[in-house]
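Lecture notes, unit on binding sites. The following record was shown on slide 14. It pairs a sequence with PY5.
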Amino acid sequence: MADIEAVEFIWKNGALVPWAEATTHVLSHSLHYGSGVFEGIRCYQDPDTKKSFVFRLRDHMARLHRSCKIAMIDLPYTVDELCDATVEVIRANKLPACYIRPLVYRGYGVMGVDPADAPIDVVIAVWPWDAYLGDDALSKGVSVGISSWRQRSNNAIPPSVKATASYMNSILAKLEAKAHGYAEAIMLNEVGLVCEGTGENLFMVRDGVLSTPPLSDGLLEGITRDTVLCLADDLNIPALEESLTRSDLYIADELFMTGSAAELTPIGSVDEREIGPRGPITQALQERFFEVVHGKVEAYTDWLTEV
Ligand code: PY5
């Protein structure tokens, strides 16, 4: 049951190749050992001007480079080259809006764990992708559950690397959440502090104050997370990074998740504790977020790359 909408081209190792030909050998190193790193980015179209913009493209490609550095992957393209390639593949596919998935993986050549002699392959795929957590999620919110699976520690597969291997953790938590009837899981770290969702960062509102766990608690340095912290500042919403416990979540006034795929998705309940419909601070931030990504806020046009 494939939900990827195929388009015409994928950018692979410097050239556009037909979608169906962007394949890899079954003995590719990353397929066996999870040695790849990736990004998730969105391109939005302004409904009035019909201009399309990639949101924070450079920041995503810079994070891809940071992931490669930690994973000791020699990425053969600069941030600028990766940004240009992204624009090229969106244009070639004539997509007004899309999701963008750059992936750097260790390809075919060696089967030992030592990856040094495996080639580095780089792809950038684009396709239309609607609301990640379902059609109603952005307005109505989703139910989440605290996972029995813990987030990896900073000394295991580091959460700051957007590594393919990390998502075994996310997959286990997601499957468990779905089995319990939740749309998404929240993972705690080994000492029981709140980290993040399986593909999203997490925010809480209590008594008018916005808070989100600090990176040191073990989470991806989300670009949407950073965006929300900037927008909160603009909207004079007090915001801080602080460690949170599961009890903090149960008694929150508002909760929401952020991510390039999930955008800004309200949380309606945690472990059957009702949080409620989308709250006023969530709504204000969400509205501002969608204005910014659609090119409606002059102050943030630096974050947009026109296609
Ligand atoms: N935490 C995790 C574990 C993530 O996978 C993601 C993004 C985030 C946080 C949020 O990061 P950002 O705001 O920079 O996107 N997840 C990917 C995404 O494209 C993959 C989801 C399937 O949103």
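Take-home: Residues 40, 196, 199-201, 220, 222-225, 258-262 surround PY5 (CB under 6 Å).
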